[in-house]
Design goal:
single chain, alpha/beta, TIM Barrel, 9-stranded parallel sheet, 8 helices, 9 strands, 11% strand, globular
Length: 302
């Protein structure tokens, strides 16, 4: 329920933003359905000693994280101008280069990793944890969550968390649903496991850049990231998928310099001492009714 004209105006702004992004994605040929010859679920890659059949056991709710709020969030925590850099679908071929850039500029970030990718590159997971980056759950196999049963959704969450724990001895306390798709079951399962749900407010569309990365792709990523300068607390979506995102690596220093030069403070989504932040006036949490999806912007990652 909207309790004030301010919150109503902000919710309207969010709806306009989502509509605009959806139209832009449609114009670019972006869609949520699989590409021809590709399954709806992200291809399963078996890790050492693992079956390629994907998650099969739901496991108990994890109690290692603080109590999490219900609902999905779109804005970075903090009171001053803040920006959160986030990377999905890793770890991958570009992760080490991204970590080096973040360390060079002393910028925090949040990594939403996929279970199968963690199994393939466990040393990068350990490096992310060692360097103090926030670790997020992005499911085991990158499926369309709202299309799954409750048991399969639970399995996706539990197995991805278990993989991180087995590799690095830590549990993820943040969750981002693949494609930004979720339903009330997804939100409840994440909350039960102590994981706050984070979406994004700025999409760089960096997944569209294929191969080594052209100057055009790099400029587009930077331009789209800079649209976050119109927001006070943007969350920027980027990728470090298994096949690599070289254009993202090239664009990242310019993105960091842009926000820094415009007075933003870089934050992780779960800063120390303030696990989940709080909704600021005019920037409420976002939830959806049963049967609805929040946002569909990109096809399956390579």
């Amino acid at each position: 329920m909207v309790t004030s004209w301010r919150e109503g105006a902000v919710l309207a702004r969010v709806m306009v933003l989502v509509a605009g992004l959806s139209l832009a994605a449609s114009a670019a040929g972006c869609h949520s359905v699989p590409r021809p010859g590709q399954s709806a679920d992200h291809p399963v890659v078996a890790g050492p000693g693992r079956s390629a059949a994907g998650p099969t056991a739901t496991g108990p709710a994890v109690a290692h994280c603080p109590a999490a709020p219900y609902g999905a969030r779109l804005y970075a925590p903090g009171n001053s101008k803040t920006v959160a850099l986030t990377f999905d679908d890793g770890p991958g071929r570009s992760t080490a280069a991204i970590l080096a850039i973040l360390a060079r500029y002393r910028v925090p970030a949040t990594f939403f990793n996929i279970g199968v990718a963690m199994a393939a590159r466990p040393w990068l997971v350990r490096e992310e944890v060692k360097e103090g980056y926030v670790m997020g759950n992005h499911t085991w196999n990158h499926p369309h969550m709202a299309a799954l049963s409750a048991a399969r959704q639970a399995a996706e969450l539990s197995q991805a968390s278990a993989e991180q724990q087995s590799i690095a001895g830590t549990m993820p306390c943040a969750f981002r649903p693949p494609y930004g798709e979720y339903d009330p079951t997804t939100l409840s399962l994440a909350q039960q496991r102590g994981m706050a749900v984070w979406l994004w407010s700025v999409d760089t569309l960096d997944w569209m850049a294929k191969g080594p990365g052209s100057s055009y792709s790099v400029r587009r990523i930077i331009r789209l990231a800079e649209q976050g300068g119109a927001l006070r607390h943007p969350i920027v979506l980027m990728h470090d998928g298994r096949q690599g995102n070289p254009s993202t690596v090239t664009a990242l220093p310019a993105i960091i310099q842009f926000f820094r030069s415009h007075g933003y403070r870089f934050v992780a989504l779960l800063p120390p001492g303030r696990a989940f932040g709080s909704s600021r006036p005019g920037e409420p949490s976002v939830t959806v009714a049963t049967g609805q999806l929040f946002l569909l912007l990109r096809p399956d990652p390579a």
